[in-house]
Each structure stands twice: as C-alpha cells, then as structure tokens.
C-alpha cells in the first residue's frame, strides 16, 4: 500500500514538473491573476519579456496598472463573466519603458477560485506591419486615382474590378457602374 502511494506521489510530481516546464518555457506570455485585478498570482518568463518587468516587479503590484486603459480590462472581465472565457481579446498594455504594446489575450475564468488564467501574444509588430501596408495601399490608391493615365483591373473571369478616375471620366461611367 505504501509503495502504491509513493508511486502515485512520484507520478504527481512528474506531472507537476511537466506542467511547470511547459509554463516556464512557453514563448507565449502566461499568467494567473486575481479576478479583481489586485494581483498577478503567477507569471512566466515570456510575460516578463513582453512587458520589460522582472518577475518580482510584476508580482508586487496590482495587475491592472499595466493596462493602457483599465477600462479594457474591465471589458475583458465582463466578457469572462458572461462567457467563461475569451479568445484573442485585443488590448494594449504599457511596458516598463513606457511604450504601449498591442496584445491578444485569451483567458478562462475560474469563478470558484476567484482568478483568471490566460495567455498573451504580443502583436505590436504585426499591427505596425498592417498599418504600414494600409498606408502603402492608401498611397497607391491615391496615385492611381490621381494619375492621368488609364488604369483598369480585370479579374481572370473578365470582370472589371476597378477603374481609375481618368478612365471613368473618359468612358463617362460612374464607379458603381463598373
């Protein structure tokens, strides 16, 4: 009986260690926070790396301080209370050096225990790339529309997808007619 108990204890230790290793070695920020935002209870190194704070700093202050807009956290908690979890909830947080980063939060509420467990993925670079692409597209659209040359885009099926102002004017078409 004692050997069986020791075996079970050893298996439990192995299981706990596997979980701890996954948690600590993840490239995704992971956390456990009080539901009221008063404290981060557990964090991994990836969350420290994302925020620029040390583990000790993050665990010593209320978690809501690092949200760019605490109202956003309140909205996430509201959704957690309603649905039990959130997936890819976009929010901004403030790093130790004062920069705002954009992140995707996925979390699950444990109401009986009074905490939230979740992950964060830093999407700041993706947001910058999307904004640069949007600006480039806007610039290209402006050039095409302002050009006196004729521009037309036609699908492989032969459908006209777009025509610039110069060509519309020459053909006396309205944009919605193409």
What would your notes on this structure say?
With 178 residues, the protein is of the alpha+beta class. It contains 6 helices and 7 strands; from the N terminus they run H-E-E-H-H-H-E-E-E-H-E-E-H. It has a 5-stranded antiparallel β-sheet, sandwiched between helices. The chain has a two-stranded antiparallel sheet with strand order 6-7. The longest helix is centred in the first third of the chain and has 24 residues, at 2-25. The N and C termini lie far apart (82 Å). 17% of the residues are buried.
Summary of the model, kept short:
The protein has 178 residues and is α+β, with helices and mostly antiparallel strands. It contains six helices and seven strands; from the N terminus they run αββαααβββαββα.
What would the keywords be for this entry?
178 residues; alpha+beta; 5-stranded antiparallel sheet; 6 helices
Q: Widest sheet: strand order?
A: 2-1-5-4-3
Helical residues, percent: 40-55%
Task: Quote the beta fraction.
Answer: 25-35%
Label the structural class: alpha+beta
- The number of helical elements comes to 6
| Straight-line distance between termini | 82 Å
Q: In total, how many beta strands?
A: 7
CA radius of gyration: 26 Å
Q: Round the mean pLDDT to the nearest integer and report it.
A: 89
Unreliable stretches (pLDDT < 50, length at least 5) are none
């Amino acid at each position: 009986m004692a050997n069986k108990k020791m075996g079970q204890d050893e298996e439990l230790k192995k299981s706990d260690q596997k979980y701890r290793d996954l948690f600590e070695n993840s490239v995704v920020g992971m956390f456990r926070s009080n539901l009221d935002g008063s404290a981060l209870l557990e964090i991994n190194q990836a969350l420290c790396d994302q925020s620029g704070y040390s583990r000790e700093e993050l665990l010593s202050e209320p978690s809501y301080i690092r949200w760019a807009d605490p109202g956003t956290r309140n909205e996430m908690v509201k959704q957690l209370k309603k649905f039990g979890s959130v997936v890819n909830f976009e929010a901004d947080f403030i790093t130790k050096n004062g920069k705002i980063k954009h992140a995707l939060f996925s979390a699950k509420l444990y109401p009986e225990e009074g905490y939230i467990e979740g992950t964060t993925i830093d999407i700041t670079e993706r947001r910058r790339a999307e904004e640069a692409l949007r600006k480039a597209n806007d610039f290209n659209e402006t050039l095409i529309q302002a050009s006196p040359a004729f521009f037309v885009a036609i699908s492989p099926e032969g459908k006209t997808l777009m025509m610039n102002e110069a060509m519309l004017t020459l053909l006396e078409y309205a944009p919605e007619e193409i």
